[in-house]
């Protein structure tokens, strides 16, 4: 019997999707399946949806400025931050480059990691034609040094919850590094999980983003609620 195909359905951004907003920044709880910026699929991008949300909310008939400062892979959910002013965009970009933005992700896997906590360092090389990243133990031409900290935080029904704190931010980094550990993320058949999700999502969620506000100079903590999809709910009590 053929498996049903998943059709991506674009949904507008509403107040319920907004995790944080002030005059300089806006953070959204990204749905798995949304693309952050336009690509060759032609699907409406998240930054365009956020621009429309701002223009409508603040009655800006000529549109709104919005700066993309970081990205999440299409099948990943969670907190993503945009800049509403050019000043904030410039400063936030510097903070990301200076590793002053602390991000915490949670991944669901089927294999207990060994060791249960540690630091992973690889040299990642992306193949842009195939949109696949490969991890190497040693530096190879064109590769980027990639580092993350991880720890096992719990288990439910033979699934394991891993907390991940990336030190660097490389394309597909968490996905390929956990796969190299022997723990491919549930649903991520690109990186070793035996089957994909009908929702075209993987069980990787950008949970928290912590930083010092680039204009107000105040600490900011943004937390993205877990997806309500009938699966993530199993792990509510294990995820901070």
What does this structure look like?
13% of the residues lie in helices and 32% in strands. The longest helix is centred in the first third of the chain and has 12 residues, at 46-57. Strands 1, 2, 3, 4, 5, 6, 7, 8, 9, 10 and 11 form an 11-stranded mixed beta sheet that branches. It has helices at 46-57, 86-97, 173-180; strands at residues 18-21, 25-30, 67-68, 77-83, 102-109, 117-127, 132-136, 144-156, 159-166, 204-212, 219-223. The chain is of the alpha+beta class and 240 residues long. 33% of the residues are buried. The chain is built from 3 helices and 11 strands; from the N terminus they run ββαββαβββββαββ. β8 (144-156) and β9 form a beta hairpin. The chain starts with 17 loop residues before the first strand and ends in a 17-residue tail after the last strand.
What keywords describe this structure?
3 helices; alpha+beta; 11-stranded mixed β-sheet; disordered N terminus; 13% helix; 240 residues; globular
List the helices and strands and how they pair.
Layout: E1 18-21, E2 25-30, H1 46-57, E3 67-68, E4 77-83, H2 86-97, E5 102-109, E6 117-127, E7 132-136, E8 144-156, E9 159-166, H3 173-180, E10 204-212, E11 219-223
Parallel strand pairs: 4-10
Antiparallel strand pairs: 1-2, 2-4, 3-4, 5-9, 5-10, 6-7, 6-8, 8-9, 10-11
**What percent of residues adopt helix (DSSP H or I)?**
10-25%
Query: What kind of assembly state do the chains in view correspond to?
Result: single chain
| Alpha-carbon Rg, integer | 18 Å
Q: Total strand count, please?
A: 11
Q: Spans with pLDDT under 50 lasting ≥5 residues?
A: 1-5
Mean pLDDT: 92
């Amino acid at each position: 019997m053929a498996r049903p195909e998943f059709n991506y359905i674009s949904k507008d951004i509403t107040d319920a999707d907004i995790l944080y907003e002030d005059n300089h920044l806006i953070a959204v709880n990204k749905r798995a399946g949304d693309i952050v910026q336009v690509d060759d699929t032609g699907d409406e991008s998240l930054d365009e949806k956020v621009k429309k949300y701002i223009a409508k909310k603040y009655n800006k008939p000529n549109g709104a400025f919005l700066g993309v400062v970081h990205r999440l892979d299409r099948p990943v959910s969670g907190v993503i931050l945009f800049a509403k002013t050019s000043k904030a965009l410039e400063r936030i970009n510097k903070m990301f480059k200076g590793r002053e933005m602390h991000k915490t992700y949670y991944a669901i896997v089927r294999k207990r990691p060994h060791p249960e906590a540690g630091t992973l360092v690889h040299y990642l090389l992306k193949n842009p034609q195939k949109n696949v990243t490969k991890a190497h133990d040693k530096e190879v031409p064109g590769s980027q040094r990639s580092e993350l900290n991880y720890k096992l935080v719990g288990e439910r029904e033979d699934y394991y919850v891993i907390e991940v704190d990336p030190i660097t931010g490389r394309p597909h980094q968490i996905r390929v590094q956990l796969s190299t550990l022997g723990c491919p993320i549930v649903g991520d058949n690109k990186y070793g999980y035996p089957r994909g999700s009908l929702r075209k999502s993987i069980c990787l969620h950008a949970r928290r983003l912590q930083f010092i506000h680039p204009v107000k100079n105040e600490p900011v903590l943004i937390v993205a609620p877990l997806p309500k999809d009938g699966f993530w709910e199993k792990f509510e009590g294990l995820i901070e």
